[in-house]
Amino acid sequence: MALVIRKIVADEYQRAAEVVQTTFAHLAVQYQPPAGVATFARLSTADEIASRDARHSVTYIALIQDVIIGVLQVRSSQHIAMLFVLPEMQSRGVGRALIKAAEQDAPLQTVSASVNSVMAYMRYGFMPCGADQVSPSGIRFVPMQKG
Q1: Using CA atoms, how far apart are residues 143 and 147, in angstroms rounded to an integer?
Q2: Which of 56, 65, 87, 98 has the most crowded Cβ, counting Cβ within 10 A?
Q3: Which of 134, 132, 111 has its CA nearest to residue 121?
């Protein structure tokens, strides 16, 4: 089963959103305050992901046998806006492959990492550059940058 990484196409946004939402619900939700959960629900719909791509982002997907198993959205060419890999496919190099594909277009520099994903981002070369915090929209995160 070969892993394929490529940019998303229009008819894949709904399935990509399902991967993002399923993965968030599996683990990240428990680290978010209620306002963060509500904000994330709004930001992770297919329409919102596509809308950001139309304005200033690029979304990459990871597929095995034409099934989306991972999603990476990059904002303004250098900030990881979201990176989600289905729970059963984590720790198999999917996240790293998504990042590597995106970095062929532009080097990634920053991420606002969910608390549960800090160690994974450290393995990808990012380091915390600030304390655990909550955004005005209620999302809890740790700011990280390539170190």
Answers
A1: 12
A2: 98
A3: 111
Per-residue buried b or exposed e for 127-137, using 16+ beta carbons within 10 Å of the residue's own CB: eeeeeeeeeee
Instruction: Say which amino acid occupies 66.
Output: D
CB atoms within 10 A of CB 29: 16
21: three-class secondary structure by DSSP: helix
Helix (H/G/I), strand (E/B), else coil: 64: strand
The token pair at 70 is: 């991972």
Written as tens digits, the pLDDT of the chain (147 aa) is: 799 999 999 999 999 999 999 998 887 777 787 888 889 889 999 999 999 999 999 999 999 999 999 999 999 989 999 999 999 998 899 999 999 999 999 999 999 999 999 999 999 999 999 999 999 999 999 999 997
Contact between 145 and 127 under an 8 Å Cβ cutoff? The reply is: yes
